[in-house]
Amino acid sequence: MQEFLQQVVSGLAVGGIFASLALALVLIYNAMGLVNFAQGEMAMLATFVAYALVNRGMSYWIAFPVALVLAFGGGIVIQRIVIRPVERAPILTLVIITLGLATLLNGLAGFVFGYVPRSFPSPFSAQSADVLGVFVSYRDLGVIAMCGLVLLAVYLLLQRTTVGLTMRAAAHHPEASRLLGVQVSWMLGLGWGLASAVGAVSGIMVAPILLLEPNMMQSIIIYAFAAAVLGGIESPLGAVVGGLVVGVTINLAGAYLPFVGGDLQLAVGLAIIIAVLIIRPNGLFGRAAVRRV
Amino acid sequence: MLQRIRTAPPRYWLVAIVVIFFVGFPTVISSFQTSLWTQALVLAIAIMGLNILVGYSGQLSLGHGAFMALGAYTSAILAHRYKLDYLITIPIAALLTGLVGFLFGIPALRLSALYLALATFALAVVTPSLIKRPDALTGGVQGILVIQPDPPQFAQDTFATVTGTVMSSDQWIYYVALFCALLLFWVAWNLVRHRPGRAMRAIRDGEVAAAASGVNIAGYKTMAFGISAFYAGTAGSLFGLATGFVSPDTFPVSLSIQLLVGAVVGGLASIPGPLLGAIFAYFLPIESNQWVPSQAWIPAQIASTVKNAGPAVSYGVVLIAIMMFAPNGIVGLVNSGYAALNRRLRGAGDRETGQMPPDPQTV
Known about the structure:
The complex is a heterodimer.
Chain A: H1 2-32, H2 39-55, H3 60-83, H4 91-113, E1 128-131, E2 134-137, H5 138-160, H6 162-172, H7 174-179, H8 184-206, H9 217-231, H10 236-256, H11 265-279
Antiparallel strand pairs in A: 1-2
Chain B: H1 12-24, H2 31-56, H3 64-81, H4 86-108, H5 113-132, H6 135-138, E1 144-145, H7 153-163, H8 169-192, H9 195-205, H10 207-212, H11 217-243, E2 245-246, H12 253-266, H13 273-294, H14 300-325, H15 329-346
Antiparallel strand pairs in B: 1-2
Helix pairs in contact in B: 2-8, 2-11, 2-12, 2-13, 3-4, 3-5, 3-11, 4-11, 8-11, 9-11, 12-13, 12-14, 12-15, 13-14
């Protein structure tokens, strides 16, 4: 039982990481009906920036927000240069472009930083605390807390501020918003920046667990896809719940199903994606799509 | 009366030149170069499969590497464990992969383009670890060695009489791949200009309109998946033959991306496109890896990084640039260049018949 609970807690920690990246995917999906295949690679690049800053002697707690701000700016720049010219292109074109972007960013990271895996510092101690008889590592608690904070911040930004209201309006009713004087295109840019920053959190949180290298996010993005699909791809709350469910599921499957073990956990992510898409394509929190003919 | 869809007439003399070129080519290049071209041809077959699916039927698959893996492993296991002749295993692998692709196409019907892309991408990422697991069957991380067959007697004799040299194993495999490529390109060409091709294009351009015109949407979409997987399975099987082994790392997610790059660069929804795209996608990393270190002015350290990161960077830039500026790929560029030249030479329309030159965008 105790071991089971420990697995659940560490599952929640990785689940928080998946939830951040899934939330980033949902933000962009809501803004323009597109799944951003480059989200993981954008997060990986932001993590490399944080790594470079920490390596220059900057304190972790300064480097972290600085990397997020840079990721925010980077997201806007990417939207302005790569996405804006093709905003109205068919979805096939957009998906191929984000995939090209993912490949490009992956190569760029390899070009600048090389493919040697690096260890990334964690600000939390590796020791464990005894919570009601369950040993919980401070790292897991720290990751859960950080991801929770970020998700809360995004919620407050979107629901309680004028900017958030404007962004939601631009995403849901671009024409009406434009008539009311909202600069829809820039709101999309802000959406990309925000998604990029939220995704960067997942990268910086996961880097101490995996080692930092250009292909680090390749498996995380699959879990984030699973989380977003499970939650219903347009629901931010769904992304968070989906992330936690996926995190706990793969951890338990890895620990208790002998044929899954460590190396087929990714296949569990794929199985979740396929099962949800076939059984309940709208996910847990999504609304059924109505198609106008 | 309905007007016939106008297409540029096929240029048979050009096709003949290309075929003669590919038949004669391996007699004048080295054995190593021949095996490279074999792999490029194999890639062309897989890209043609992807092209049928993405370009003609409008369903995006980012996981065709997985179908190639299935074809390759089917052949390798049959040849290695059951001692079948490798050439006989190629159609078996192709049919099996085609069947799996057809079955895969059934749940895919329910998915929007976006979800399909997502699911197939996840499949491509998971493929290597899925292969590793049943290691009694697939040989795990080590993979399976494929014994490259010697050319049969009739091929040796013909080759000796025509060129006066002894046919090597690499050359024989090249001709096997060329035969498959010619056959499958011919099938694809026939497929897309007849009823199935028109039906698939109609579905791609407007599913509701196609259904209203009596096109069997589900049938043609799953059929496209099946045919596409058949091509990928053939290519995978030939790939094992050409490289001499199959292992999980032969089929990374970057292979699926390489296929997509080839399809996009050559030109979606065109027949010569996949061949041009395959040559581009296959030789770009190889040539740049040879060219960059040979340049004295590039520091050695940068050269070694380019070797690792170069393909990814160039593939990414090419994908984005083509989708932005030339969505019809090389074929589209050539066609529009040809049309512009035609207009320049002949004026807006043909003087004798008064017809406008055919619109190169109409496929």
